[in-house]
Design brief:
The complex is a heterotrimer of chains A (258), B (297) and C (390). With 258 residues, chain A is an alpha/beta fold. Chain A has nine helices and ten strands. In chain A, the strands form two sheets. Chain A has a six-stranded mixed beta sheet, sandwiched between helices. In chain B, helix 1 packs across helix 2. The chains are: A alpha/beta (258), B alpha/beta (297), C alpha+beta (390).
C-alpha cells in the first residue's frame, strides 16, 4: 500500500449482474494528480467510477482513502454517516448530464452555496459573496446568480455543477464524461477551465471518458479499459504517443484518422 | 370567560378516553421515547378515531393517552374555544372521560390546540398537545420517508437552508410564515405544527411540556420543559415575528396575534385577538380597544 | 362595531339535526332497513367490509345506512368502530382451496378440473337499464338445484402450474415467522410482502383500480393473465388454548384472484410465471383483480425489473391507498385555516409595500440617470411555501 497516495485501489472487482462491470482494478491516485479512465461504452469505466466513489459496492478487493481526520482507511470500514460526509465535503462528483447534478428549481447561487450551508455556514451575505466569486471563476456572469439553471446553456450548467462540487475545496473529484453532452466548441473551453482549476486548487481527479483528447488535455496518467479490465496504464503522453497494447493502438490510430 | 363544567355526560359504553388500555400504554411508551429525544419523530400504531384523519386524530390520541380523571381540559382551534373543531373535540372528550373542561388557559392542565399557542404564558405542570398534519420538515425537499429518516439520523439539514436562501434571494425575506422549522435541543429539526411563526418564540424554554401528535402520518414528537428551540435563520437575516399596525379592536392589546375580520363589501376591516379567552379576560379587566371606545362615545 | 360571533356549539347541534333529516329524506317513504341493505345491496356491504377491514355484514349495513349511502364514510365508521374492539387472538390461515364455491373461472385455460363455474355476475349481462326494476316484483321462484353437485375437488390453477414448476414458489419463509400486523404497527419501509398485502387488502378500490389500469397501459410492464378467480364461503377456525384444539368461529365470504405474469429469468434461473395476489372480504372481483395487479407491480424491484412507474413505487402506492386517510386529509381543508392565511397575508402585504417603495424613488429619478436600485428581483405573485423541489 502506497502511503503517499490519496486513493489506493487494490484488486477491485465490481459487477452489477455477476458478469458486466470492472475486474481486478488496481491503481493509486496522488494528491493533485489527474487520472483518466478511457474506454468505449461497455468497457466498465463507469462502473469503476461508481465503485471507487463507493456508490456501488465492490464484490472483492479494496479501496483506501487518506481521510483528513482518520488517516488512510479502507472505505468499507467507514460508517454510512462518515461516507456521506466525505462525499459532501472532501469529494466532488461531476455527472455527465449537469441536470443530474444540480437542483434545477433553485437559483445558481443556492446551488453553489448548498454544500456550505450543509456544513453549517449561516451568513447569507457571505454565502452569496462566495457563490458570486465561484460564478466568476467559472466565467459565468455574476448577474445570473439568482437565475435558475434551466435558463443556462448546457455548457454553463456544467460549469455550475462543477462550482457546486468545488465550493468546499474537496481534495478529490470524480468526473463522469464531463464534456460528452456538450458541443465541440464548448468542450474545448470547459476543458481549458478544468485544467486551470485542477492546477490552481491542487485537485486530484479521476475522469472517465471515451475521448482520448480529454485525456491528453487533462490527465497526467491514463488507464485504458476494455471488457472490464485495464489493458494498459501509464503516463498519458507515453500511452498516446507510444501505445503498447493492440487495443490502445487501435484507439489512438482511430483518432488520428478522424 | 367561563370555566364551564363538562357539557356532555360520560358515555359508559366506551373505555375511559375511548382507547383501550394497551393502546394507551403503547402511546405513552412512544411519548416517553419522544420526550427522551426532543424533536425526534417516533412512529406509533395510530388508530382510527371517530373524527377523520386531518381533524386532529393525532392530538386526540395523545390527549387520550395522558388524560386522567383529575385533569382539566381546554381545546382550541385558531386560538378560539368556540370554533367547530374545538367544540367537536371537547364534546368527544366530555363524552368519553367526563373530565372537567374549561376555556381558561390558567386553569387547564392539558391544552389541546390546532394552529396556535395561547397568549397567556404556560406554567410548569401544564401540557400542550399540538395537532400536526405533516410532521416531516424535510418532506418538501424529499418525498421518500426512507431518505428523510436517514437525513435526520445524520443531521443532514443543509437542504432546508437552501429554501431559506432562495426565499431571501427572491423576496428579500424568508417566505415561511407558519409551521416554521426549528432546531430542538441543538439536534433535531422539527415542524412545530402550523402555528404562525409569531408563536415560535413561545416554544423556546417554555416551562410546559409540549407534545405533538400526527395521526394520519403516525408520528409523535415532543419538546420537554425548558428546552432550547431555535427557529432557522441566517446570521444576517435573523428570525422575525409578524407585526400589525393595529391593536385589538376589543381589548386594545398590541402584544397578541390578531385575526382580520372583513365587515362589509367595501373591504372595511377590523382586527381582533385570535386568542378569544385572552381577549375576553382583558376586557373583563377593564381594557378596551377602539371598538370599545366607539361604543362608549 | 364588531361583535365576536359565538354560538358555534349550537350551530353544530343544529347541523346534526339537519343531517338526520337529510339522511332520512321524505318521512312518507318507508325507512331503509338493515335487512334490505344486506340482502339487496350486498356489493356495497362487501366493499365496506373490505375497506373497513372488519367482517360484519350487519355492522356494514348499519354504516351504509348511517352514512346515507356514502361508501367511504361508511368505511370510516367501521374502522373507527374496529378501534374499540378488543383483540382476542388470531384465526388459523384460511385455505381457499377448500372454498365452498359460488363462482370460479380461469382465463388461462379453456377448461380446468372442476370446470368454469359462472355464478352470479354482471359480466355476461348487457348493460341496459332494466325498467322493470322500477316497480316491485313478485317474489321469484327459488332456483332449482343443479342436476349434479359441484365436484368435491376444485384445485387452484396456480397449484396446477406449481406442480409443473412453471410458477414461482411462494414458499413459507424459514422459521415461519409471524406476519407483520398493520392494524397494530405503523407501516415502515422497506415493507415486506405481508405488510404490503395487508395495506392493499384494505385499500380504496378506485385507487387500486387506477393503479392496476396504469400497469396495463404501459406504466409498468406485467402482461398479466387471470389464472383464477374464486368467490365463495369459507369456515374460519381458531385454536383455543384452553381446549387444545381449533373450533370454527364462523363462516365468511371471500373473493380471491390469482394473476400470473411472465418473468424473464436470469443467468441462474429458468424463466417462470410470477404471481400477483388479491383477496377481499365478501364479493369484490374488481377489487381483488386490481389488488393482484398492484401486488405484482410492487414486486418489480425484487424481480430485478426497471420498476420506475408509479405503481412500482412502494411509498407512493402504500402511503396513498387508504381512503380514510386520504379523505380526512383532503377534506380537512374545510377546517378554518385563517390564522395561517393571516400570516401569509401579512407577509404578502409587506413584500408588496417594499416593492412599491423600491419602485417609487426609481420612478421619481427616471428623469435623471440614477444608480441601479437594489430592489429584490422579480417576485412571483404567489408565495408558495412548498414550491421548491430538487
Amino acid at each position: 500500500m502506497n502511503n503517499q497516495a490519496l486513493l489506493s485501489v487494490r484488486d477491485m472487482t465490481c459487477t452489477w449482474d455477476g458478469v458486466h462491470g470492472c475486474r481486478d482494478i488496481s491503481f493509486d491516485l496522488h494528491p493533485g494528480e489527474v487520472l483518466c479512465v478511457v474506454g468505449e461504452s461497455g468497457s466498465g469505466k463507469s462502473t469503476l467510477l461508481q465503485a471507487v466513489s463507493w456508490q456501488a459496492r465492490p464484490e472483492s478487493g479494496s479501496v483506501w482513502y487518506d481521510t483528513r481526520d482518520r488517516g488512510f482507511v479502507d472505505l468499507a470500514s467507514l460508517s454510512s454517516a462518515h461516507l456521506r460526509l466525505l462525499a459532501r465535503t472532501d469529494w466532488g462528483f461531476v455527472r455527465q448530464n449537469a441536470r443530474d447534478g444540480l437542483r434545477m428549481q433553485v437559483s445558481a447561487g443556492a446551488n453553489i452555496a448548498e454544500r456550505l450551508m450543509a456544513v453549517g455556514q449561516r451568513h447569507y451575505g457571505d454565502l452569496r459573496r462566495v457563490a458570486g466569486n465561484w460564478l466568476q471563476k467559472m466565467e459565468i456572469d455574476t448577474g445570473r446568480l439568482d437565475d435558475q439553471p434551466a435558463a443556462f446553456s448546457g455548457g454553463m450548467q456544467q460549469r455550475l455543477q462543477i462550482a457546486r462540487n468545488l465550493v468546499t475545496h474537496p481534495r478529490m473529484v470524480f468526473m463522469d464524461e464531463p464534456t460528452a453532452s456538450l458541443d465541440v466548441s464548448v468542450q474545448a473551453r470547459l476543458l481549458d477551465l478544468l485544467r486551470q482549476l485542477v492546477a490552481d486548487l491542487k485537485l486530484a481527479a479521476i475522469v472517465v471518458t471515451h475521448d482520448l483528447a480529454v485525456a491528453r488535455l487533462l490527465a497526467h496518467r491514463t488507464l485504458v479499459m476494455r471488457g472490464g479490465r485495464v489493458v494498459e496504464s501509464g503516463l498519458t503522453d507515453q500511452i498516446l504517443d507510444d501505445p503498447q497494447h493492440p487495443y490502445t493502438q487501435l484507439l489512438v490510430s482511430s483518432i488520428l484518422q478522424s | 370567560m367561563n370555566s364551564a363544567q363538562a357539557t356532555v355526560a360520560r358515555d359508559d359504553h366506551y373505555n375511559f378516553a375511548y382507547l383501550d388500555e394497551s393502546t394507551k400504554r403503547m402511546l405513552r411508551r412512544a411519548l416517553l421515547k419522544a420526550v427522551a429525544i426532543p424533536g425526534y419523530q417516533v412512529p406509533f400504531g395510530s388508530r382510527e378515531m371517530p373524527l377523520p384523519y386531518g381533524w386532529g386524530t393525532g392530538g386526540i390520541q395523545v390527549t387520550a393517552a395522558i388524560i386522567g380523571q383529575a385533569d382539566v381540559l381546554k381545546v382550541i382551534d385558531q386560538g378560539s374555544d368556540d370554533t367547530t373543531n374545538a367544540i367537536n373535540i371537547r364534546r368527544f372528550f366530555g363524552r368519553v372521560t367526563g373530565v372537567r373542561t374549561t376555556e381558561s388557559t390558567r386553569e387547564a392542565t392539558i391544552v389541546q390546540t390546532r394552529h396556535r399557542i395561547p397568549e397567556t404564558p404556560l406554567r410548569e405542570g401544564q401540557i400542550m398537545v399540538y395537532q400536526v398534519p405533516i410532521p416531516e420538515p424535510l418532506r418538501w425537499l424529499e418525498p421518500s420517508e426512507t431518505e428523510t429518516r436517514t437525513m435526520h439520523a445524520l443531521a443532514e439539514y443543509g437542504g432546508m437552508h437552501v429554501k431559506l436562501y432562495e426565499d431571501i434571494a427572491q423576496h428579500g425575506h424568508i417566505a415561511t410564515t407558519y409551521d416554521y422549522p426549528v432546531i430542538v435541543n441543538g439536534r433535531y429539526m422539527m415542524r412545530p405544527s402550523p402555528i404562525p411563526k409569531f408563536d415560535n418564540p413561545k416554544l423556546d424554554g417554555n416551562p410546559a411540556l409540549m407534545l405533538f401528535g400526527a395521526g394520519r402520518e403516525k408520528r409523535v414528537y415532543a419538546v420537554p420543559p425548558y428546552t432550547r428551540v431555535k427557529s432557522l435563520d441566517f446570521e444576517d437575516h435573523p428570525f422575525r415575528v409578524e407585526q400589525w399596525d393595529h391593536c385589538c379592536e376589543l381589548c386594545g392589546s398590541d402584544q397578541s396575534y390578531l385575526d382580520e375580520i372583513i365587515l362589509d363589501d367595501q373591504g372595511t376591516r377590523r382586527f381582533v385577538c385570535s386568542d378569544t379567552e385572552y381577549c375576553a379576560g382583558r376586557q373583563a379587566a377593564g381594557h378596551t380597544g377602539a371598538a370599545g371606545a366607539e361604543a362608549a362615545a | 362595531m364588531y361583535v365576536a360571533v359565538k354560538g358555534g356549539e349550537r350551530a353544530i347541534l343544529n347541523s346534526y339535526r339537519m343531517l338526520d333529516a337529510y339522511r332520512r329524506g321524505d318521512a312518507q317513504v318507508p325507512e331503509l332497513t338493515l335487512a334490505q341493505i344486506r340482502q339487496q345491496m350486498p356489493l356495497a356491504v362487501s366493499r365496506v367490509m373490505a375497506e373497513g377491514a372488519l367482517y360484519d355484514p350487519q355492522l356494514a349495513a348499519l354504516a351504509i345506512k348511517q352514512a346515507a349511502g356514502d361508501v367511504i364514510e361508511a368505511v370510516f365508521l367501521l374502522r373507527a368502530y374496529r378501534s374499540t374492539l378488543p383483540r382476542f387472538g388470531y384465526t388459523q390461515p384460511v385455505d381457499t382451496a377448500r372454498m365452498r364455491l359460488s363462482r370460479r373461472i380461469s382465463s388461462t385455460f379453456k377448461d380446468v378440473p372442476g370446470g368454469q363455474i359462472l355464478g352470479p355476475t354482471y359480466d355476461y349481462t348487457q348493460r341496459l337499464l332494466d325498467f322493470s326494476l322500477e316497480a316491485e316484483s313478485e317474489a321469484a321462484e327459488p332456483l332449482p338445484p343443479a342436476a349434479e353437485p359441484l365436484p368435491a375437488s376444485m384445485p387452484r390453477v396456480t397449484d396446477l402450474l406449481q406442480h409443473d414448476d412453471l410458477i414461482d414458489q411462494e414458499a413459507v419463509p424459514p422459521g415461519d415467522p409471524a406476519p407483520f400486523d398493520l392494524t397494530r404497527q405503523p407501516l415502515a419501509f422497506p415493507a415486506g410482502r405481508d405488510a404490503r398485502l395487508q395495506n392493499l387488502a384494505r385499500a380504496d378500490e378506485g385507487f387500486l383500480l387506477s393503479m392496476g389500469y396504469s400497469t396495463q397501459r404501459g406504466y409498468g410492464n406485467t402482461h398479466p393473465f387471470a389464472a383464477e378467480i374464486r368467490y365463495g364461503s369459507l369456515e374460519v377456525d381458531m385454536f383455543i388454548e384452553e381446549l387444545g384444539f381449533a373450533v370454527t368461529v364462523g363462516e365468511i365470504e371471500l373473493t380471491e384472484c390469482q394473476m400470473v405474469s411472465q418473468f424473464a429469468g436470469s443467468a441462474h434461473e429458468a424463466p417462470k410465471f410470477t404471481r400477483g395476489y388479491g383477496l377481499t372480504f365478501g364479493y369484490g372481483e374488481r377489487k381483488a383483480m386490481s389488488m393482484a395487479l398492484v401486488d405484482r407491480a410492487l414486486k418489480a424491484h425484487e424481480l430485478g425489473e426497471a420498476g420506475d412507474a408509479p405503481a412500482n413505487d412502494h411509498e407512493f402506492v402504500l402511503y396513498h391507498s387508504d381512503n380514510v386517510e386520504a379523505s380526512g386529509f383532503v377534506q380537512h381543508l374545510k377546517l378554518p385555516h385563517y390564522v395561517d392565511f393571516q400570516a401569509n397575508l401579512e407577509l404578502l402585504r409587506r413584500l408588496r409595500q417594499e416593492q412599491a417603495a423600491a419602485r417609487a424613488p426609481a420612478a421619481a429619478a427616471a428623469a435623471t440617470p440614477a444608480a441601479p436600485t437594489a430592489a429584490p428581483s422579480a417576485a412571483p405573485a404567489a408565495i408558495a411555501d412548498e414550491a421548491l423541489s430538487s
